[in-house]
Amino acid sequence: MFRDGKAIVFVEVRYRSSNRWGDGLASVTKAKQRRLIRAASSWLKRNAAYARAPCRFDVVSVSGPELAPKLKWARNAFEAH
Question: Is 50 left (phi over 0), alpha (psi -120 to 50) or beta?
Answer without folding.
Answer: alpha
